[in-house]
Write a structure and sequence with these properties.
This protein has about 120 residues and is mainly β. The chain has one helix spanning about 1-20, and strands at about 25, 30, 45, 50-55, 60-70, 75-85, 90, 100-105, 110-120. It is globular.
């Protein structure tokens, strides 16, 4: 257990340093897989000038990650990932048009997390 907590803390420190220039994307909803006690959500999402990054804080299995441009309703990103503890997914948004986007993460049991971000 101590080794696990040490690994989580080390991962959080590394991610905090890497995301110092990034803004947090607030995720709402619930995945069927419950987070570890004391953890508000099993996924953290960040945005910087060129990417959206998802950080998986616990094993969540297969997740569908979808990004939709709100103005048109067009899906601009769709991917299924095996979300393992400590892994991350980086979505390059550099060439996306300005606007508001909805990020949706769905698990195999129908649970979901959703958040909004802006491309300026």
């Amino acid at each position: 257990m101590k080794k696990f907590l040490f690994t989580v803390c080390l991962s959080c420190l590394a991610l905090s340093a890497a995301n110092a220039q990034a803004s947090n994307i607030k995720l709402h909803g619930d995945l069927v897989q419950k987070p570890i006690r004391g953890m508000t959500t099993p996924i953290e999402a960040y945005q910087d000038a060129e990417n959206v990054q998802l950080v998986f804080l616990t094993d969540l299995g297969n997740l569908v990650v979808k990004v939709v441009r709100q103005k048109t309703g067009a899906t601009v990103y769709l991917n299924t990932v095996d979300a393992l503890q400590g892994s991350a997914l980086e979505i390059n948004t550099h060439k996306w048009k300005k606007g508001v986007y909805t990020l949706t993460i769905t698990d195999e049991d129908g649970g979901f997390l959703e958040g909004e971000f802006f491309i300026m």
